[in-house]
Design brief:
Length: 239
């Protein structure tokens, strides 16, 4: 399969790659004129394109054909993830993109061990991880990794979704009870320390549905991916 690259500079018959995407194609992959690749416009359309010219910072391409991307899920799931330690968030981002999440939003809650530090710099790395995961998994758009929120700001965002699922280690209703008729879904999971009773009550007051993820306690990097995979399976997006 030809390699995939994202660009917004697409016209009727031609396109341009710039920046890191152009560098990766020309230098890392040693692209040559006449080679065919897949371009993605980030809006759900894929293009078969042929390299026509390679310069220092740009790659020019001719568009050969276009088709709707077949990898984007029919439901839109946002992961709200309690900020974990070490590189666990990078793992969640990579696998969350592969499984079909459209947004990933870290947040700081009461029992988070990590404190905010160089978040803009880290966010740039997180977005690169999302880009590479989108390319690897054949996505038609690059999910956004947002800057971390406070717990209260995270709760305020939940009202924009058809349903918000609050994954609680003390248990709750089955996930399947709420996702059948929802097209926009938020999944909220905690950090290593989980959630306080007060935070769970605040989530319910904000309209979130408290759910359990089975009889086992899942690690903070496992819970969001398990909930996302279960949602996608229930919505028929893993068939």
């Amino acid at each position: 399969m030809p390699h995939r690259y994202f660009t917004r500079e697409i016209e009727e018959t031609h396109a341009i790659l710039r920046g890191q995407e152009a560098y990766h194609l020309s230098k890392v992959m040693r692209g040559k004129c006449g080679q065919e690749i897949i371009l993605c416009d980030g809006q759900g359309t894929d293009y078969l394109a042929q390299i026509t010219d390679i310069q220092k910072d740009t790659v020019q391409l001719e568009l050969l054909s276009s088709s709707p991307n077949q990898s984007e899920p029919q439901c839109q799931v946002t992961l709200y993830v309690g900020y974990p330690k070490q590189d666990k968030l990078e793992w969640i981002i990579q696998k969350g993109v592969e499984l079909g999440a459209v947004r990933i939003v870290p947040f700081f809650s009461k029992f988070c061990v990590v404190q905010p530090k160089k978040e803009e710099e880290k966010n740039q790395r997180y977005q690169r991880i999302a880009l590479e995961a989108a390319k690897q998994s054949g996505r038609g758009m690059v999910p956004v990794v947002e800057m971390p929120l406070s717990y209260k700001d995270m709760l305020r965002q939940l009202q924009q979704f058809d349903v918000s699922l609050f994954c609680y280690e003390c248990g709750g209703q089955p996930l399947s009870s709420y996702v059948s008729n929802a097209n926009t879904i938020a999944i909220v999971t905690g950090s290593e320390g989980g959630f306080s009773t007060e935070e769970a009550e605040q989530a319910q007051q904000a309209g979130a549905k408290v759910i359990g993820l089975g009889p086992r306690i899942l690690r903070c990097e496992t819970a969001p991916l398990a909930a996302l995979a279960a949602t996608m399976a229930w919505k028929g997006q893993l068939q």
